[in-house]
Amino acid sequence: MIIVKNKRCSEEKIRKEFPDVLIVDVTSHAKDEMIRLSPFYPHGGIPVPFSPGWAAMSVESIWQGLKVFETAGVDTALFRNNTMKGLKRTVRKYGKPKGHRKGVGGSELLEYIQARKLIYVPTYKWMMEHKARTEIEKLRELAKTRTIVLLDYDTNPVVEDPSSPLSHASLIKAYIDGTYPVYDGTDEAQQQKPEEGKCEFNIGQRVRHFKFGEGTVKSIEGGRITVTFAEGDKLLALRVAKLESV
Fold first, then answer.
1. pTM of the full structure
2. C-alpha dihedral, 97 to 98 to 100 to 103, nearest 10°
3. pLDDT at 199
4. Rounded to an integer, what distance in angstroms lies between the CA atom of residue 148 and that of residue 18?
5. Distance (Å, rounded) from C-alpha 11 to C-alpha 18?
6. Residue 12 CB: number of other CB atoms within 10 A?
7. Where are the domains of the chain?
């Protein structure tokens, strides 16, 4: 069983309510590998919805980068932010938000809830399936025999509720429980593939493949990267979307 709690709740209070609980921090302040489930984590190579050829470092950089304000439009520079900091774009600096652009070059502005459905929710799912599969499977197995409390700074699980930010921990729970929300129009967003030149990979960079483990980039050509892996020093040409930064 999986439960979502506010990270500000004391561990003592949580354990009093659930004595045999396993507490897992999935925020950007996590101290273990579960930090990779934070929307701020810079995996790299995450396709930007409705934007062929564009990829970003994190889910949050996509959400913030496509936001449009009274005095500022789409900010593609955020797609390259790999620091987990400086991603928020504030009303104080840019004025009232007008919506989210449906794609980098799109003409349509999505209102808040629609943007959640077409941008945030499918992008976070893509990240779980392509960049954090190991962590998700670990939680899935643990939840079969233990009660797990996921810590998040937000606990709103309802996509259609604009009163507070959507909880990414609730999306994790929904994904593992088999109740992840799917909306019409998200297929296009999920099927986008980043093109070479838009991903943050360079020759000599350490990368990770979900199946082959860690390796080093040897060459980049088109939409494929040749990586050498420690085991047998073998070279494999792999699609950019299958790799992430280490």
1. 0.76
2. -130
3. 46
4. 9
5. 10
6. 8
7. 1-200, 206-245
